[in-house]
């Protein structure tokens, strides 16, 4: 305990220098901005800004880059709520209830609760990193390919709950998402699958191409069809910030979301993407009236938003304590550290304590800054809803295109986004939900990869997934998955299921 | 930030100066394609070298990351671009020497179809294993792997990656091409499973594994270079440890489309050499565990010879590797 306090005071000493405060602020501001802009993600931004940090000291550079990353998580919810476009996999679920709240004139409250929930989750996650970073690393190491596969299976069972309408349609969308995830070069054999000879498909479909298409472009198309629907949003903007009632309603989901998101964030291989989905599922399952979900339930925003921010912070644990990046953004952080002559590894904590603790302290300061940046901006963001369509839609499309292009510098990606836009419009017309498809897509890649890794290691034996002596975690996760499915499918509780799944 | 502003100001000033003369390469920024995501080993070396080369050339070298298909997407774009000297690429062992044997439909010919500039640096390759793996040294490792071909698991960062290429060569030399190979998406996840003991061994660049070896979370059997590395002085070379045939380095070097003007080639070679002789740049490269290229390798002909030599070394093992 004393040790943690002395470490934290060292950290705050580093983070509270004028220069580092300024860098942290710059990072948070840029992060919020790119989070708000659809399509421009933290990966592209950090790689563009990487060379600028050459002139800085490593601690300052990492403080700024980290600020961009978690700042983008704050900003991403804004676009998801206001215009129904998830900038990243972690904000897909926020579109479900967040955008509905905006349509009901509660956009400000949704934005406010997202910011407050994120702040709370960020603070708790920072404390977790400071106090438990090293021991928690051991947990991350318990997750091998078999455990990971079982975790993904459990995640997919959650996905059914995301459905707002028919289960069959949701199931079809998950399968379609899984199918999309298999496009590209086979990892083990190098064989190209479902690419039809198109070179830019050889690395698969990028998440942002699919998400910007089926959400962003399709949403614009749908709105062009019935312009009057917008007037509803225009007419009543309502209260700007959440009141006491809202906060009381959101408090428990925020706590649960923080816990779930924080745990999943530590796992290697981008476990953080599961956080918001898991939180949403949990809230919908334990809600007294699950039918409100998908129609603007505040719990459906508060929980997942807290989970995504907690995960964004705890994702630093494997990087800082092991030197192993759990996702693409953290891999860029490795690059940033390496460029500055700090090769990430298990000894960063002892060899560069000022870097480690300075970063931890800066995360807390950054979260406070983000709250201060975001809450006053809520009014301004909500006003964006009043921008006329003829200005807003071209702007959304342009920002999406720039964002897509910046991911891989491939012009064909932009064309594919347009194609997915038409496809997404078709889905909306036919009453299919795109959110389960995106979850299937995100999990599909990891799932296939981990399944094959686990089977190669076990020499083809499926027993490895339920080996209670060697792999109890995998077995436990599969049991939970079966339970989730059983609850959804058992006829005895099918009446309750009706309540959960239908409007 | 200040540096960026200064850099932009300088670039603008020079652009105007260049416009006034209206001759002499380069008159506009040069694009250097890095065929991998930003932040990886090749990207870092490219950025460090390009930073200094820009000063010599008087024009900014802009790094463009075009990732895909083990780096071959980016290299294809670079070597099929207009040969005006304004599009070059930083490729590596995989994209220049191993790609023809790895990707049957490759759209470029690294030996005859491009203009080499020079080598930027080599990165030693290490054979590393999980901490609890039975063999204590390289000799035991070789014997163990040969005796337990059907039990051992090797991790690599995906088909076409440096770890896949160098490990496939190792398996070819050991006569055990059929060892179970577990593919990961990148070095990070592969290393994670090596540290946690899910897989047995892998081959990778020193920059990726040195810190883990130092922290004793994994162990290193040997370094596949002629000399030991100052970054890990206790790790013997493959020659010292009894496997002299396994010699391979993951180098990074610059090339462009065939038919570039001689002036452009000469100026780029000169700028590369000045960068590699610059104390600051040198230090940053050495800190990464990079081996600086010899005078010969810094020339177009020397670099082309290196590409050919390693291609000849790798092709038999890669062609025999189970794939497609």
UniProtKB/TrEMBL annotation, chain A:
Q: What Pfam families would the database entry show?
A: TctA
TM spans, by residue?
Answer: 107-132, 139-161, 324-343, 355-377, 389-407, 414-432, 473-493
- Look up the domain of life of the source: Bacteria
Entry keyword Transcription: no
Q: Does the keyword Transmembrane apply?
A: yes
Q: Which InterPro entries match?
A: DUF112_TM (IPR002823)
Q: Which residues form the DUF112 domain?
A: 21-439
Q: Which UniProt keywords apply?
A: Membrane, Transmembrane, Transmembrane helix
From the Swiss-Prot or TrEMBL record, give the protein name: Tripartite tricarboxylate transporter permease
Query: Which organism encodes this protein?
Result: Bosea minatitlanensis
From TrEMBL, chain B:
InterPro entries, per database record: BUG, Bug_dom1
Signal peptide, first to last residue = 1-22
**Superkingdom of the source species:** Bacteria
Any one Pfam family match given in the protein's UniProt record, by short name = TctC
Q: Alphabetically list the UniProt keywords.
A: Signal
UniProt family annotation: Belongs to the UPF0065 (bug) family.
Q: This chain belongs to which protein, by name? A: Tripartite tricarboxylate transporter substrate-binding protein
- Name the source organism: Bosea minatitlanensis
Q: What is the lineage of its organism?
A: Bacteria, Pseudomonadati, Pseudomonadota, Alphaproteobacteria, Hyphomicrobiales
